[in-house]
Design goal:
alpha+beta; nine-stranded mixed sheet; three-stranded parallel sheet; 14 strands; elongated
Amino acid sequence: MSNSSLRHFTFMLAVLGFGISLISAGVPELQAGEFRAKAWKKYRGTRIYMLQDRSAYSYVTGSMTIDADGAPNAYHPKNSGLDDLANAGYPRQSWWNTVLVSDPADLSRPYIMKSGPYAGYYLSMTTLKDLRYAETDSRRYVDASRIPYIVFPETFAAMDGVGQIGDYGVAVNLDNGSSSGFVVADIGPVRHPLGEISIALATRLGGKDVSARTGPSRPMGEILYIVFPGSLNRYPWPQDLHSIESITQKMLEEAGGAGVLSALAGYRLPVAPKGASQSGRGARER
């Protein structure tokens, strides 16, 4: 979805006359006009709401971790990539091969790209893959520097009803109105909170000088995430950035457009301190 479209949704809610009804202090239900969302699950302190027709669920969090995985220049043997090698677990952790592609000629070492503009870099992977390409081809993976994506913590991904890798959604920065469509592209560590996103998504939500090593240059506030579970089944991967925007705009409009956004954006949940963005450091601890 284009920033202008969602920004229009965000700032026209009052004009459109959708009243927000927060039911009791526990906020078990959100309502805007005919649209209702009920408290559905809770994950590590973050409350998740499901629309009445179960076409989408949402959560708000100020927690943020920046992911560079899938970018061809994410990791370098001299630790000069977008992210710190420690966040890929190499060479000290046994789980590095869940982040870096193993060299087919020596599985005990990460694969180093042999040609192209990023020759000499390690190749990092994402859970979502374009199976048309070989495991040692960077086009197989979702480039965090170009494609807006979110990461499901492993425990969250295993929960019933949350959808699957390759589903789509919309993110809205509730402080500045910036917005973007996204794809669910990776599975992260078991203990992580919600809020790990790609460099590209953080940038599109208003982040400046976004770094997987240090996070955005300044706090970004609370982000509303809306996920459309099962949407991969309608729109198989791969999709380019333009298609992701078109798909997510269409799905939001089908779910109810401004009314649904009004219902889901009309609340604040207990979250980490406002703007408490986290760097990528420790993002891959297992």
